Amino acid sequence: MDYLPAFLNVRDQWTLVVGGGEIAARKADILLRAGARVRVMAPEIDAVLADQVQEHGGEALFQPYTAEAVADVKLVVSATDDRALNARVSADAQAAGVLVNVVDQPDLCTFVFPAIVDRAPVIAAVTSGGAAPVLARMLRAKLEAIVPAGYGKLAALAAGYRDRVKATLPTVESRRKFWEDMFEGRVAELVYQGNEDEARALLETSIAERDTAPAAGEIYLVGAGPGDPDLLTFKALRLMQRADVVLYDRLVNPEILDRVRRDAERIHVGKQRDDHPVPQEEINAMLVRLAKEGKRVLRLKGGDPFIFGRG
């Protein structure tokens, strides 16, 4: 990774935007949406921008930039077309130990602004590290199209039940499975439809029933296809992200295996002609044993899982 992905809490924190034009206004708007107090500094500041920051408890300073301005802020954004000034702002901020972003000059940045999909409190961010901002925005557009607008309401509903679910389901694994079922099932659909009261009632019932129900395991047979990760189906990707344990063979492309949930247990059961480290009967028994333990078990095979009658 070229950058460490992170989300900053800037609520009620002072931030500095150097510049008073359109680009400065866009960066100030992002900071204001995150709850920051914004100080804009430039000899000329757009009137709308000045009014906006002042309405939200910020300041508009109609003056040239000075190094002292970075001393008491959480982060700095330099949004001017003066490269020498941008370099000076970056140097001053870094010397003061303050995060700094210089628009369109990634070499002067200690952080970058991503393209944002806002479903607060759920937020997705995409960046190219300044290499191809248009590409990042295109990817954001794709995410906007597939992430329901109700995700934020769903997250807010779940937040009210986290402690209760934690008290009811004692293990991390059992809680993860519970929330996956809720977020992919009827509760989520009701929230998306605007029926939040009905969704809340169903969630209450699900918690009560999960308290007494034994853990149910599942087995998925998924073919990895000819090896190109782009050819995986949506269903295959979804099951790969749900699995607790993955049994895979030598024909599975490592790039496909990377699509499996990161904390899933991986077990290699590879076979080739005249070399069967794990006999098929033992693989079958392993699948059943793990499922009886309440785990979601994925058998990931190269090609089609039903070739040679394995399925």
Textual characterization of the structure:
By secondary structure, the protein is of the alpha/beta class. The protein contains 12 helices and 11 strands. Strand 4, helix 3 and strand 5 form a beta-alpha-beta unit. Helix 8 runs antiparallel to helix 9. The longest helix is centred in the middle third of the chain and has 17 residues. The two termini are 38 Å apart. The model has no long low-confidence stretch (mean pLDDT 90).
Quick description:
The longest helix has 17 residues, at 196-212. The chain has helices at 22-33, 47-55, 83-95, 133-146, 151-159, 162-168, 172-184, 186-192, 196-212, 234-242, 254-257, 280-292, and strands at 14-18, 37-41, 59-61, 75-78, 99-102, 115-119, 122-126, 218-223, 245-248, 265-268, 296-301.
List its traits.
311 residues; alpha/beta; five-stranded parallel sheet; 11 strands; 16% strand
Number of strands: 11
So how many helices?
12
Quote the distance from N terminus to C terminus: 38 Å
Percent of residues in helices comes to 40-55%
* Uncertain regions spanning at least 5 consecutive residues: none
Give the radius of gyration.
26 Å
Note the overall shape.
elongated
Which strand order do you get reading across the main beta sheet? Answer: 3-2-1-4-5
Report the sheet-strand fraction.
Answer: 15-25%
The largest pleated sheet is described as: 5 strands, parallel
Q: H/E order of the elements?
A: EHEHEEHEEEHHHHHHEHEHEHE
Q: What structural category do the secondary elements indicate? A: alpha/beta
Mean pLDDT: 90
Describe the SSE topology:
Elements: E1 14-18, H1 22-33, E2 37-41, H2 47-55, E3 59-61, E4 75-78, H3 83-95, E5 99-102, E6 115-119, E7 122-126, H4 133-146, H5 151-159, H6 162-168, H7 172-184, H8 186-192, H9 196-212, E8 218-223, H10 234-242, E9 245-248, H11 254-257, E10 265-268, H12 280-292, E11 296-301
